[in-house]
Amino acid sequence: MINLTSRKIGILSTSVGAILIGIVPILVRTSEISPALTGFYRFLIASIILFIFGIFKNKFSNLNFRDVWILAIPGLFFGSDITLWHWSINQTSVANAALFVNTAPIYVAIISYFLFKENLDLFFYFAGSCCLIGVILILFEQNEYQSFKGDLLSLVAAIFYSGYLISIKIFSEKYETFHLMFFSAAFGCIPLLLGSIFFESGQIIPITLYGWFNISSQALFVQIAGQGLIIYGLSLIRVQFSSLILLIQPLTAAFLGFLLFQEMFLFQQIFGAIILLLGIYLAGISDQKTLKK
Q1: CA–CA separation, 185 and 176 (whole Å)
Q2: How far apart (Å, rounded) are the C-alpha atoms in residues 138 and 272?
Q3: How far, in Å, CA of 162 to CA of 112, rounded?
Q4: Residue 86 and residue 35 in contact, taking contact as beta carbons nearer than 8 Å
Q5: Given a cut of 80, is residue 91 above it in pLDDT?
Q6: DSSP 201-247
Q7: Using an 8 Å Cβ cutoff, are 20 and 225 in contact?
Q8: With bands split at pLDDT 50, 70 and 90, how would you rate the model's confidence at 1?
Q9: Structural domain tally of the chain?
Q10: What is the DSSP letter of 33?
Q11: Strand (E) positions, the chain?
Q12: Tens digits of per-residue pLDDT, 107-131?
């Protein structure tokens, strides 16, 4: 049974992590290199920093090869998610790609039902529907540049993201947050590097100080701090609820786009943000009632 005080910490941790992850589209947009390579360097720099920390703190002494292979699973899921999502952006509209990848909570709920045998009440489904409607209103825009292939890639990316969240939840019962952070970053480099080789071209490394500052910031604030907080939060709350909290990401990205790039924040988006936050609040009420039973 999850302690209610720990649950509050988990909600706060996941929420802050989601806000930090929400800055990714802004940093990727201003990166000097391709999206997949930007993700690769983000994961690689984070891996190096975490590896040095782990050596200094003797974090790897109790792990064997079987542990390493197990801990590789979340990273491969996450790296594949980002690679497919970036690829989908080149095949369909950015709005569609963002919209479909945020259907992950649907897959999380379905997969979790079969893995954990946890029944969700109708109130939780209602709250989840509110969250998804809110995201649709935030991200939806009329556009002509869309394709079935790109939309499908984004949907598959959402499935991989669901696999990442669920595997993190399962493995957090046995492994430390640090181990999940390091191996997720390290093995996430593999699909990102392959994706950049096969699907993208252009500049290979940043050429200015800002370019390196950009990807270093992503490594520190997004991969280490953001994903670290999400991984820790997942260890304290149910994965179905946490997947809805993570929908704060597109809201953060839309708000930052408004502040930094003067992108229009329409009434539709404001209304969507209200519905999204209300849905997360209602999901929290449902989740708390379930834990008290």
Answers
A1: 14
A2: 5
A3: 10
A4: yes
A5: no
A6: -S--S--SHHHHHHHHHIIIIIIIIIHHHHHHHHTTS-HHHHHHHTT
A7: yes
A8: very low
A9: 1
A10: S
A11: none
A12: 888 888 788 776 677 888 888 888 8
Structural contact between residues 4 and 288, judged by C-beta atoms closer than 8 angstroms: yes
Residue whose entry in the numeric block shows the structure tokens 């590896």: 51
Residue 239 contacts residue 124 (beta carbons within 8 Å)? no
Both structure tokens of 5: 């005080």
Q: What is the CA radius of gyration of the chain?
A: 18
Distance of CA 293 to the CA centre of its chain: 30
Burial class of residue 139 in the structure, from the number of CB atoms within 10 Å of its CB (0-12 exposed, 13-18 middle, 19+ buried): buried
What is the end-to-end Cα distance of the chain in Å, rounded?
Answer: 10
Residue whose tokens read 């809805």: 244
Measure the CA–CA gap between 215 and 207, rounded to whole angstroms: 12
Give the span between the Cα atoms of 179 and 198, in whole angstroms: 30
Q: Is the dihedral of CA 255, 287, 130, 86 positive or negative?
A: positive
Q: Among the listed ranges 64-78, 210-224, 271-285, which one has the minimum average pLDDT value?
A: 271-285
Phi/psi at 73 (nearest 5 deg)? -60, -50
Q: How many residues does the chain have?
A: 293
Residue 136, domain extent? 4-292
Which structure tokens are listed for 61? 């002494």
